[in-house]
Design goal:
single chain; about 170 residues; alpha/beta; seven-stranded mixed β-sheet; 6 helices; about 20% strand
Length: about 170
């Protein structure tokens, strides 16, 4: 229990120069930060600009993350139709929990959709994790429009897919 509390406390630390709520509010620019794709490339949130993206932070031991990945596999083509790239990122150090790496997780749960070009898999840096998930939620996502602004925030796509898809469709207008 002490180890989990220490990890959670470490993840909650963030840049005090700008309040977290201001940086992650709807309509605000999505903060930059780096992540590593499963093929070992380091990239960033800023590199996603110009296209809409669903940046989804998960842990690979989380039941709702697994269910959400299954739902996403069923709907990935709908995201692609609206030119939304799904970026599923394992939170740094898997938030201290046991689970497979994101590639193993993705292959096992997304099955044939794992290689869909509309879906990018990776691992969030510690800084990206603390910026987008300061409260250490196991399953949280941000819909970011092509201008790089936060359009919608929620979690657990298995429970929120209909509302999420409404927001994805609204990016077209």
């Amino acid at each position: 229990m002490i180890i989990i509390a220490a990890i959670t406390a470490a993840l909650v630390r963030h840049d005090a120069s700008q309040p977290q709520s201001a940086r992650l509010s709807l309509g605000a620019p999505a903060p930059d930060g780096s992540f590593t794709t499963i093929d070992g490339q380091t990239t960033s949130i800023a590199a996603l600009r110009g296209k809409s993206a669903l940046v989804w932070f998960v842990t690979t031991y989380c039941g709702s993350c697994q269910a959400g990945t299954q739902i996403m596999a069923d709907h990935i083509d709908r995201f692609a139709q609206h030119h939304v790239k799904v970026v599923e990122l394992q939170l740094a150090d898997n938030l201290g929990g046991d689970g497979p790496d994101i590639a193993t997780f993705g292959r096992r749960i997304a099955n044939k959709q794992f290689t869909n070009p509309a879906w990018l898999w990776g691992t969030a840096s510690h800084a990206l994790t603390t910026t987008y998930d300061p409260k250490a939620f196991l399953d949280v996502y941000y819909l970011i429009d092509a201008r790089g602004r936060i359009a919608y925030v929620n979690g657990s796509p298995d429970a929120t897919i209909d509302t999420l898809l409404e927001h994805v469709r609204s990016l077209d207008s």
